[in-house]
Design goal:
Na+/H+ antiporter like fold; single chain; 17 helices; disordered C terminus; mainly alpha
């Protein structure tokens, strides 16, 4: 209760000055991460590494489920039909190269990892966080196609990372047991897809029907939509499927049968979903403060490699032939922050393993990478936008025209 009280107090205080802070580089993830770190000064019992604030772990999982559903329900699928579009390039070639380079980097920095454990680490750190880059998405100084591409990428690559994570976890845990691996894939991946399709499409169809018949009051359209990913959680737990895959697929299916799904999901995220997201960063601050003394230079090295080479090189390769200039490629490459999705996927991994040799390596590498990203990307966002705008000065940012330099 004391921990929850601290979080509520920080949330209230942040709301009082949120408008002023938005004009600075002090982002909400930075504030709540620092608050979690400082919470240990008031609650020293949190230093016990065996103890876990269960309520926040649950909120973290619900937060990612809602994020996956919301992102999938509001993405414009037409942007992905053209394989030459920026989002399609980032989510195909860019995503696969990120996983490959992330795993290769892990094997080089941590040779004690197996190839599948390296894949686990790469998959956890593959998704980017739209929340950490919100200032970019909202800035009119950044050309519209660039903002749109980064936003769509962040909205979908978390959902795309989940199957890879589960697959690598299955390979790492199966130990050559093919039937066990096959059963794991069918239950986690296949079950999640099936649950997502059923609840997403059926729930969206019922909401659309109720709206057309004027059976439902306006405020309950949003609440009804939010119930769909919660149904996915319950069904996934009952059948041993992945709630994250179910939520992501449900978001895609819901917008097919209910055209207003994206709008209502966005409204929920803006009004209530942020509380769940902030709680994850608050939890991360507590966890980081408990572990920071174990962070050796190797973990910092991998974090730097992950945020630079592993992110920027795939972006550059995926944009070959896209007609983008060097400042744009560098800008898009750097602003691929790791945040909420990586934190929660890391927790999912930790909850599924029991004192495996690779567990502390993966845990600390993820923590180091996310921590650096929260602060480096947070503090570099506004200067980065200013520098980029000067380099592409004279371009029509609103129309999204980016001239070759």
């Amino acid at each position: 209760m004391a921990l929850l009280s601290i979080f509520i107090a920080v949330l209230f205080l942040y709301s009082l000055v949120s408008g002023r802070l938005e004009r600075t580089s002090l982002t909400a993830p930075i504030v709540f991460t620092l608050a979690g770190m400082l919470a240990l000064l008031f609650l020293p019992e949190l230093r016990d590494r065996e103890g876990s604030p269960a309520v926040f772990l649950l909120l973290a999982e619900i937060g990612l489920v809602m994020l996956l559903f919301t992102d999938a329900s509001r993405v414009d699928l037409r942007l992905l039909k053209d394989t030459r579009s920026l989002p399609a390039r980032l989510l195909s070639t860019g995503m696969l190269l990120t996983l490959l380079l992330g795993a290769l980097g892990a094997l080089l920095v941590f040779p004690q990892l197996t190839i599948w454990e390296a894949g686990i680490l790469a998959a956890i750190l593959a998704p980017t966080d739209a929340g950490l880059g919100q200032a970019i998405v909202n800035s009119p100084r950044v050309p519209l196609p660039i903002r749109q591409a980064l936003n769509v990428e962040a909205g979908l690559n978390d959902g795309l990372s989940v199957p890879f994570l589960l697959f690598f976890m299955g390979l790492a845990g199966a130990g050559g047991d093919s039937p066990r691996l096959a059963r794991f894939i069918v239950e986690q991946l296949g079950g999640g897809v099936l649950i997502g399709i059923v609840f997403g499409y059926l729930g969206g169809w019922l909401l659309d029907l109720a709206q057309r018949k004027s059976w439902m009051a306006e405020p309950f359209q949003q609440l009804g939509l939010v119930a769909i990913p919660l149904f996915c959680i319950i069904a996934s737990e009952a059948f041993g499927a992945s709630m994250f895959i179910a939520a992501f697929v449900a978001g895609l299916a819901a917008q097919v049968s209910f055209k207003e799904a994206g709008r209502h999901a966005s409204e929920f995220t803006e009004q209530w979903g942020q509380i769940l997201n902030y709680s994850v960063f608050f939890l991360f601050g507590i966890m980081f403060m408990r572990e920071w003394q174990d962070l050796k230079m190797l973990y910092i090295l991998y974090a730097i490699v992950s945020l630079t080479i592993v992110r920027m090189l795939p972006v550059a390769v995926s944009l070959i032939g896209a007609g983008q200039n060097k400042p744009t490629i560098l800008f898009m490459g750097w602003f691929g922050p790791r945040g909420l999705a990586s934190i929660v996927l890391g927790l999912v991994y930790l909850e599924s393993v029991a004192h495996q040799a690779a567990e502390p390596i993966i845990r600390l590498a993820v923590m180091a990478t996310v921590f650096l990203s929260i602060f480096l990307h947070g503090f570099s966002t506004k200067p980065g936008i200013a520098i980029y705008a000067r380099r592409v000065g004279g371009n029509d940012a609103e129309s999204g025209r980016v001239d070759e330099l």
